[in-house]
Write a sequence for this structure.
């Protein structure tokens, strides 16, 4: 059976790769600005020997590199002839919604042959989450059990939880042994929460008291989505890590909301 799904929020599914400033060309002439994915061979095929020499010298000293800056200020490509040529032959061009944030490495979206797609494992995970959510809404006993379990967890580990909260407020100026103690306590608390999560999932998905072969989602098979057109559905923006001071922005390719797949 084939189904259509619609994205409700920005979605990033990474492939472990990231584009450096030498892999994309930022163009602020457009509204919104655009990013064109460029491969290295295309750059060298677009330059003559003198320009290639300047390019190699520039790479060695420029950190982080910015191709738009190179063409405009090093090669004096004021009429954008070279940049337009690169954009015309780019792998794809997508909008940049990062605003005034200075782009650096961009985490790429998972693709096959430069076509993004959503893996079946991700779709199955979303189905699993939806079933858990609806189960908590529809099954009063399950809801009561979870709230009671979390309340007991908070009471049992109140000292440890307060310690973690206080260390977070103190910042990173603690002695190394205190930081190690903090890591050990967080690891312990995370382990206990994983146990609660596992028990919740067993109650919803397992029909025979935690025996893995009776896990109902085991028999639900979900395939990957179709291969998609990057230039139509992808964009670039950034996130800032939560509750971490002075942390740099992290840039991602993402599927835009309201995309039908």
């Amino acid at each position: 059976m084939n189904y259509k799904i619609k994205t409700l929020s920005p979605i990033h599914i990474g492939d472990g790769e990231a584009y450096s400033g030498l892999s994309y060309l930022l163009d602020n002439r457009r509204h919104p600005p655009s990013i064109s994915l460029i491969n290295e061979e295309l750059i060298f095929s677009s330059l003559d020997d003198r320009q290639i020499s300047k390019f190699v010298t520039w790479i060695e000293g420029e950190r982080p590199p910015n191709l738009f800056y190179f063409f405009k200020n090093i090669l004096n490509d004021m009429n954008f002839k070279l940049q337009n040529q690169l954009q015309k032959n780019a792998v794809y061009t997508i909008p940049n919604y990062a605003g005034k944030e200075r782009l650096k490495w961009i985490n790429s979206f998972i693709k096959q042959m430069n076509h993004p797609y959503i893996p079946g494992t991700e779709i199955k995970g979303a189905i699993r989450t939806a079933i858990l959510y609806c189960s908590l809404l529809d099954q009063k006993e399950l809801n009561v059990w979870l709230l009671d379990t979390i309340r007991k967890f908070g009471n049992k580990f109140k000292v440890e939880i307060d310690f973690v909260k206080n260390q977070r407020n103190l910042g990173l100026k603690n002695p190394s042994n205190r930081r190690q103690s903090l890591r050990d306590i967080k690891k312990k608390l995370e382990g206990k929460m994983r146990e609660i999560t596992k028990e919740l999932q067993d109650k919803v998905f397992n029909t025979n008291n935690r025996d893995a072969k009776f896990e109902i989602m085991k028999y639900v098979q979900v395939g990957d989505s179709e291969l998609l057109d990057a230039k139509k559905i992808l964009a670039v923006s950034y996130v800032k890590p939560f509750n971490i001071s002075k942390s740099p922005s992290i840039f991602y390719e993402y599927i835009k909301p309201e995309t039908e797949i």
In short: The chain has a mean pLDDT of 87. The CA atoms of residues 19 and 127 lie 31 Å apart. The chain has nine helices and nine strands. The radius of gyration is 25 Å.
